[in-house]
Design brief:
- The complex is a heterodimer of chains A (about 150) and B (about 450).
- Chain A is an alpha+beta fold.
- Chain A is built from five helices and four strands, in the order H-H-E-E-E-H-H-H-E.
- Chain A has a four-stranded mixed β-sheet.
- In chain A, strand 2 and strand 3 form a beta hairpin.
- The radius of gyration of chain A is 14 Å and the shape is globular.
- Chain A starts with a helix and ends with a strand.
- Chain B is of the alpha/beta class and about 450 residues long.
- In chain B, helix 1 packs across helix 11, helix 4 runs parallel beside helix 5 and helix 12 crosses helix 14.
- Chain B is globular.
- In chain B, the strands form five sheets. Chain B has a seven-stranded mixed β-sheet with strand order 4-10-9-8-7-5-6, sandwiched between helices. In chain B, strands 13-14-17-16 form a four-stranded antiparallel β-sheet, with helices on one face.
- Chain B starts with 20 loop residues before the first helix and ends with a helix.
- Helix content of chain B is about 40%, strand content about 15%.
- Chains A and B meet through helix 1, helix 2 and helix 3 of A and helix 12 and helix 14 of B.
């Protein structure tokens, strides 16, 4: 396998794709949204529960490629227990990482999600990684629907 | 008489004994003697194929999306712009006359490709999609009873259809209050012919719109028989030939199709050109699609009159270079065959070569654990649609790309068909005359890599 491909499909991504964390749907969700990438048909549904300004529960379901599944799984781990503002801040950081043309940029605070930095070299796959985030953003904003278009 | 055959009563399902004429011809030469214009021998005529992609030799297996273009076509387009560029028709000057001649020559070439009665039954459009939209829109505004789509009318399409043979009919149906009804397909990816007959009988549709060859699965539909049945029940038949054009010999007169459409960039020609064939009387009765220059006879503020076909449907300056390139692509195909009926010979060889490769690909992919192939009709063009357990088609596509292999991953503009098979997407390898057995090996090795990675 070529080097850049190993960069894209890192062990963390393959692992989260095979064993996604927080997969499912919350029955007592306070916020939810449906995300859709019309280009490739990827679909993700996010339910979350907030109390006192914190995301205390979050789950996702849907179907998509390894990149979008792993991104959704990593995202749910990253925002659980975080305030809404903190979650939005991580989203902005993540967005900056996957769209930045400068691969030297370091985004230490993103933790395991750094594994997704490789998508910046695959323009058609960036939306796979950001779809769950756009969907979370829509859920927090009470919009119900998100699209990568 | 066009299609106004009295409906007959069909008691039993007639299994089509005769497939499309083209298919029959292909069957007759399924094991042709070795020919020197398929596979490795022809690759030098396609300069793009010799490049490296991501450091590996390009293995181009996305031919159902668009084919590569031979030097003859590339040179004809460059030659036109270098030596002949002028707007066509009404030009009294030298260059305009040459450009017009070349443009008209292409129309005759398409007539030979489709076996239509006369060149004026060939309309150039910007693509197959526009060709279908032209008919759908025309049927909304038609005055002629045979064509006019009315409230309560039914249009039959199959579940195999590309969005471009579904949505134009939905738009037309919405405008007049008609209905679009899908014909179901079997687990093998074939149209359910008994359901088709029942729908014909039960709904007496205005029109049946069916693709000749399925872009997502490769199924070759028994189109001649389906057209026959449509006519027997008083329906018009439009055949979407986007995927048939590059692979099998077509004869619109044998098929008795009322309309037949082509996507020319899939037939080794430049992008931006499509073809609508229509029976003369139908094209004459169909109202213009777009107004503008070239499609008129006279214009006045009291009212305008329209040019005869084909000009009536070719408003504005067309894609002259693209059409000339298409003419060259057909002439190039003809040049590969013998002196008599060269296209019969060439398409028989192309189909045999491509299906040999796709069958080999199916056999090799089936050896890989977790691979499932969609489309198991015994009548298939060189298309292999597959999924791999635990790996999404987009991941397959990206990983194959890193090996220099171009395949398509997605719903192939066939969302209802994907839903029928309960998959969000498939990966698709599609073959052309320049593909080789080595490339099938690359594909199988690439998919094995994906399988190991996602195991």
């Amino acid at each position: 396998m070529s080097l850049d491909l190993r960069e894209l499909y890192q062990e963390v991504i393959l692992d989260h794709n095979k064993r996604p964390r927080n997969k499912g749907r919350l029955n007592d969700a306070t916020n939810e949204a449906e995300g859709h990438n019309p280009l490739c048909g990827d679909q993700v549904h996010i339910t979350l529960h907030t109390s006192n300004g914190l995301i205390d529960q979050i789950a996702f379901e849907g179907h998509g490629c390894a990149i979008s599944t792993a991104s959704a799984s990593l995202m749910t781990e990253a925002v659980k227990g975080k305030s809404l503002e903190e979650a939005e801040a991580i989203f902005r950081e993540f967005q900056a990482m996957v769209t930045s043309p400068d691969s030297e940029d370091v985004h230490e605070e993103l933790g395991e999600m750094i594994a997704l930095a490789g998508v910046r070299d695959y323009p058609v796959r960036i939306k796979c990684a950001t779809l769950p985030w756009h969907t979370l953003h829509a859920a927090l904003a009470g919009e119900g629907k998100a699209s990568t278009e | 008489m066009l299609v106004a055959v009295q409906p007959i009563s069909v008691q039993v399902i007639q299994v089509p004994l005769t497939l499309g004429a083209a298919t029959q011809e292909v069957q007759a030469v399924i094991n042709p003697s070795p020919v020197d214009f398929v596979g490795e021998a022809i690759r030098s005529e396609f300069p793009i194929l010799s490049q490296l992609v991501r450091g590996k030799p390009l293995t181009y297996l996305d031919n159902a999306a668009t084919s590569q273009k031979p030097l003859a076509v590339l040179e004809s387009v460059a030659h036109y712009y270098r030596e002949q560029n002028a707007n066509i028709h009404r030009g009294v000057h030298h260059l305009s006359q040459i450009a017009t001649q070349e443009y008209d020559r292409a129309r005759s070439a398409v007539q030979r490709l489709l076996g239509s009665g006369e060149p004026s039954e060939i309309i150039f459009t910007k693509g197959c999609t526009e060709a279908i939209n032209l008919v759908a829109s025309g049927m909304v505004f038609a005055k002629d009873d045979l064509l006019k789509l009315k409230e309560g009318d039914t249009i039959l399409v199959s579940t195999l259809e590309h969005h471009s043979n579904i949505v134009p009919w939905q738009l037309a149906a919405e405008r007049v209050g008609a209905r679009v009804i899908p014909i179901p397909v079997t687990d093998k990816g074939e149209i359910e012919l008994d359901s088709y007959l029942n729908l014909l009988k039960g709904t007496r549709p205005k029109l049946v719109a069916i693709k000749h060859v399925c872009n997502a699965l490769g199924t070759i539909n028994p189109i001649q028989w389906m057209v026959q049945q449509a006519h027997a029940y008083g329906a018009l038949a439009l055949v979407d030939g986007a995927q048939a054009g590059p692979h099998i010999r077509i004869n619109v007169q044998d098929l008795d199709a009322d309309f037949y459409t082509l996507s020319c960039h899939k037939i080794y020609a430049p992008t931006g050109v499509g073809v609508l064939y229509g029976k003369r009387a139908l094209l004459e009765a169909l109202p213009p699609y777009q107004g503008g220059g070239d499609m008129i006879r006279t214009v006045s503020f009291e009212g305008s009159t329209y040019a005869p076909i084909p000009a009536k449907f070719e408003a504005g300056t067309p894609n002259i270079a693209g059409v000339i390139g298409l003419g060259k692509a057909i002439e190039w195909l003809e040049s590969l065959g013998g002196d008599e009926n060269p296209l019969d010979e060439v398409f028989a060889a192309i189909h045999a070569h491509e299906t040999q490769l796709s069958k080999l690909a199916e056999a090799k992919l089936n050896e890989i654990p977790g691979v499932r192939i969609y489309g198991e009709s015994s009548e298939k063009a060189g298309i292999v649609s597959f999924t791999l357990q635990d790996a999404h088609p987009h991941d397959i596509g990206t990983i194959l790309d890193s090996e220099g292999i171009a395949v398509r991953a997605g719903h192939h503009c066939c969302m209802p068909l994907m839903r029928r098979f309960d998959v969000p997407a498939t990966a698709r390898a599609s073959f052309a005359l320049y593909n080789t057995r080595e490339e099938v090996d690359h594909l199988a090795a690439g998919v094995s890599k994906v399988q190991e990675m996602f195991r």
